[in-house]
Structure formats: structure tokens, C-alpha cells
Design a protein that fits this description.
Layout (H helix, E strand, L loop, with lengths): L14 E7 L2 E9 L5 E4 L5 E3 H5 L2 H14 L5 E8 L3 H19 L4 H6 L30
Parallel strand pairs: 3-5
Antiparallel strand pairs: 1-2, 2-5, 3-4
Length: 145
């Protein structure tokens, strides 16, 4: 696998966007003409191949949805930095970041991405735990006497 240090990402050769989902934040760069590069860097600085990192084929396919919808699959390399959350949330954050980066690359792709619902951030977050309760909604058993 090729490491990030082997090539340089600059504003001239890439398009950047940030994607968020649940507790995950993904900084995403798409690199035109470098389809063989799909790298994910985690919070501890380790770099992985994108397909190896998400492990599940369904999550990998979810990440690639923006490319399939716009007909640009195989034309871009992906470099993503992910922070927080789990694999599923990170995969969705990368997907949202890719959609926004494609928009920066070509604003004419907006109708396709909008129709597929890829430009809307999924704002659902974990509900906080309340005091005197087991969790956000679950309560301790109430005893009358």
C-alpha cells in the first residue's frame, strides 16, 4: 500500500470537504486521476487501505455511493482522516465528505447528489443519560412500598 508521504496533497491537485455522522468526523480529500489511492488515517496516525479499514463490503459500497450516482467511479483517489465514533459512523461521515468534495469539484453534480439525499447531514445524535435513570430512556424499577 502506498503511504501518504509518497505523494503530496495540495489545493491544486485535490478537493476537500468535511463529513460528520454521530460522533464521527471525517476530513476527506478527493484526488482526480489517482483512483488507485484509497487511504484512511486514524486518530493515532496509522494509515490503512479504505477497503481493509471498513472491513464490511456493505460499508465500502455505502462510501462509494456518491461516485456511482455521479458516474465518476474510478476517476478519484480518496484520502480521509477520521476521528471519533465507530466504523459505521466513520464510513457514513466519509461518504458525506466525498459527496461535498464532489460538489467542490463540479457544482453541476448538485442535482444528482441532492436527489439521492447525499447533501443532507444526518443530524441524529445519541441522547444524553438523565440523572436518577439507568440511561436516556430506561428507568430503574419503581417500588410502591
Amino acid at each position: 500500500m502506498q503511504k501518504l508521504k509518497d505523494f503530496k496533497i495540495t489545493p491544486d491537485n485535490s478537493f476537500y470537504a468535511t463529513g460528520k455522522r454521530k460522533e464521527s468526523i471525517a476530513k476527506v480529500w478527493i484526488l482526480p486521476g489517482m483512483a488507485d489511492k484509497q487511504i484512511v488515517r486514524t486518530q493515532n496516525g496509522k494509515e490503512y487501505n479504505l477497503k481493509d479499514y471498513v472491513m464490511r463490503e456493505t460499508l465500502y459500497n455505502r462510501i462509494m455511493i456518491p461516485f456511482k450516482i455521479t458516474g465518476t467511479e474510478g476517476k478519484f483517489g480518496i484520502f480521509a482522516e477520521v476521528i471519533g465514533g465507530g466504523i459505521s459512523g466513520q464510513a457514513e461521515a466519509i461518504m458525506y465528505g466525498i459527496a461535498k468534495a464532489l460538489l467542490a469539484y463540479n457544482p453541476d453534480l448538485r442535482p444528482k447528489l441532492k436527489k439521492a439525499g447525499l447533501l443532507t447531514r444526518d443530524a441524529r445524535e445519541k441522547e444524553r443519560k438523565k440523572y436518577d435513570q439507568m440511561g436516556a430512556r430506561a428507568k430503574y424499577r419503581w417500588s410502591k412500598r
